[in-house]
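Here is one chain, start to finish.
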Amino acid sequence: MTTIEQLIEDIYELRELMKRQEAGLLVPYLRANQGVIMGFLRLAYKEHTREERLALQLKNSRLDSSGISDGFFETATSAIDDFDALEIGLVEITDDDLHMLIRGLRFAQYFGTDSISGSLSMSPVKQAR
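Its structure:
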């Protein structure tokens, strides 16, 4: 499994943990892996154009059209923008925040991620095994 595949699987698992009110790992996981996550999102939104994302989305039904615009970068990164505010309870990460993060990561996944280095830590999927 590639790093981005593991990342997406982990975020799906974190969404499930949130639904069961067991999200204690959520913020620590996102903080620990912020650099890798941002690398993938920069690949999709800073190194590729809207037109390239549109062409990719037209070929891949798993990609949501809402993730095509350049502005979606900010939407996708909203879950990992301000950990200080998260930790003191000023803001919360919602299921929708994680869903938007996955949408952005899917574009990076289809662009190819060989240029992104780093490994994930605190995987809830690996911990469950």
